[in-house]
UniProtKB/TrEMBL annotation:
This is Prephenate dehydrogenase. Its EC number is 1.3.1.12. Pfam families: PDH_C, PDH_N. SUPFAM superfamilies: 6-phosphogluconate dehydrogenase C-terminal domain-like (SSF48179), NAD(P)-binding Rossmann-fold domains (SSF51735). GO terms for molecular function: NAD+ binding; prephenate dehydrogenase (NAD+) activity; prephenate dehydrogenase (NADP+) activity.
Length: 303
């Protein structure tokens, strides 16, 4: 049970975390902080939070005595937020984040927190929707989904447990990765797909007959480009924060595209079918694995 939870960013991720903990009876009081006063007021109206901190003085009071502070904001804001909360951070308070990149977040935390870095437990919930804001928050967003904790050497076991225990209460399955390993993995399976979806929609939108093209775009296009509806600011920050790993994945993907273009130009149907077939089998296997992983009564992994 958390007596006091403070959430920076009361949109989809932070709002859903608060809703899930409330639904589980795992938190007594939730304070919301957001750079958008309209968002924090809306979160209060929806019952996502119990208290809105909209002024520096109220933010300072909110942080004092908190059991857990969660940063559910774009990763580029990490250093600034930590700088602001540090003077008010009690010794028992644990801070965590929900950022999609980890090495940059850890570097920012080390730079600001210094000798108190042990109070920061970095993490990343692997769940989301293409909608944003408090109205998008749902209590069951994290059920059966992964939460990756990228614990630091300075983190006490009880600090890590406070974070992972809260995510378990939300229904998440706990995984463990090193920050650098995390960023390489997600450059491939998350950051690159977002870049590709944005690029495709932007390319079509820029064509002189874009209206006609969108008129005939159906379910396949919708499914492929769904993630292009995500927050541009958040994904700008993620792309730049994980630049090296994302560039490596983009280069490999571009080489694959060049190969496919050559085979298409040559009329090499056999190679095209082989690539398509391999992709189909890999995707089916992945879907089966995901369905098994999200079955009831999951156990934590030491991945």
């Amino acid at each position: 049970m958390l007596n006091k939870l403070v959430i920076y960013g009361v949109g989809l991720i932070g709002g859903s975390f608060a809703r899930a903990l409330k639904a589980a009876g795992a938190v007594r009081h939730v304070v919301g902080i957001d750079r958008s006063e309209a968002s924090v007021r809306r979160a209060l109206e929806l019952g996502i939070i119990d208290e809105a901190a909209t002024e520096p003085e109220s933010e300072a009071a909110a942080i004092r005595g908190a059991d857990l502070v969660v940063l559910a904001t774009p990763v580029a804001q990490t250093g600034r937020i930590l700088q602001g909360l540090l003077p008010h951070l009690d010794a028992h308070t644990i801070v965590t984040d929900c950022g999609s990149t980890k090495a940059d977040v850890v570097a920012a935390a080390r730079a600001v927190l210094g000798g108190r870095i042990g109070q920061f437990v970095p993490g990343h919930p692997i769940a989301g929707r293409e909608t944003n804001g408090p109205d998008a928050a749902i209590a069951d967003l994290y059920i059966g989904k992964k939460f990756v904790v990228t614990a630091l050497a300075e983190n006490a076991p009880e600090a890590v447990e406070r974070v992972t225990g809260a995510w378990r209460a939300c229904g998440a399955i706990i995984h463990r990765l090193a920050p650098e390993e995390h960023d390489k993995v997600f450059a491939s399976v998350s950051h690159l797909p977002h870049l590709l979806a944005y690029a495709l929609v932007d390319d079509i939108a820029g064509k002189p007959h874009a209206g006609l093209l969108f008129q005939y775009a159906a379910s396949g296009f919708r499914d492929f480009t769904r993630i292009a509806g995500s927050s541009p600011e958040m994904w700008r920050d993620i792309s730049l924060a994980n630049q090296a790993a994302l560039l490596a994945e983009l280069d490999a993907y571009m080489a694959q595209l060049v190969h496919l273009r050559e085979r298409l130009a040559a009329g090499d149907g056999a190679t095209l079918e082989a690539v398509y077939g391999n992709a189909q089998r890999a995707r089916r296997q992945w879907i089966e694995t995901i369905e098994a992983a999200e079955a009831p009564a999951p156990k934590d992994t030491a991945e």
